[in-house]
Amino acid sequence: MGGVRTRQGLERLVFFSDAVVAIAITLLVLPLAEGVPEAVARHASSVEVISENLPAIFVFLLSFAVIAQFWRAHHQLFERIDDYRRPLVLWNLLWLLTIVLLPFVTEMAGSFGGDDRFAPVFYIAVVLGSSVCLSVLTLIARANPDIAAGPGAITGRLVAEAVSTTVLLAIALVVTVVVPGARYYSLLLLLLLPAVSTVRRRTAPRS
Questions:
Q1: For 143-164, what is each residue's pLDDT tens digit?
Q2: Separation CA 196–CA 168 (nearest Å)
Q3: What are the Cα distances from residue 36, in Å, to 18, 33, 64, 107, 108?
């Protein structure tokens, strides 16, 4: 990272990140696919394959949406970056670690029942970790205008969205730990993001 940095190096970083995300989002469906031959072997109906796996299907869809949203935010950020530094690469690798973990925690979430308290806490903690990494990446790009695509490329709105998501996920984690019945429903706090953005725009000083 301390040597020559080229545009090709940045493109390889982005392509590698996209490939890891694509593999992770594909792995989400494998546990559901593996359940089909098992259902056939015990002569279960096709409807039972769905009805017996509703919790797993719910968590699959949740994780798909989470990874898709994080990829969108990552893509949006790197569209505004023209160069890179060592901290950016390291935090991007940490972000990819959280993405790779999501299929694992998704399988845990779908396999353990409602009495298990650790699975939802672990799941939301991993999602929070991913959001923290994206927030740090955004702040690094904001603090280093020389790596941005141009003046003002890393806007305050971009930073606010990343940090707001992290704060809401931190609150969701606390709620899940403190309130046993909250489980994954605490992630509904993310629905407050549009309201947070609206308040921020109204209270921001006008130029």
A1: 988 888 878 889 999 999 999 9
A2: 10
A3: 29, 6, 20, 16, 19
Question: Does residue 138 sit within a domain?
Answer: yes
> How many of the other CB atoms lie within 10 Å of CB of 204?
11
d(CA 83, CA 69): 24
Mean pLDDT computed over 68-95: 94
Q: Please name the amino acid found at residue 99.
A: I
pLDDT tens digits for range 126-139: 999 999 999 999 99
Show the domain range for 108.
7-203
Report residue 34 as tokens.
């593996």
| Number of domains, the chain | 1
What are the tokens at 9? 């190096």
Q: What is the dihedral of CA 38, 55, 125, 129, to 10 degrees?
A: 70
Establish if 1 belongs to a structural domain.
Answer: no
Rounded Cα gap, residues 127 and 134, in angstroms:
11
pTM: 0.87
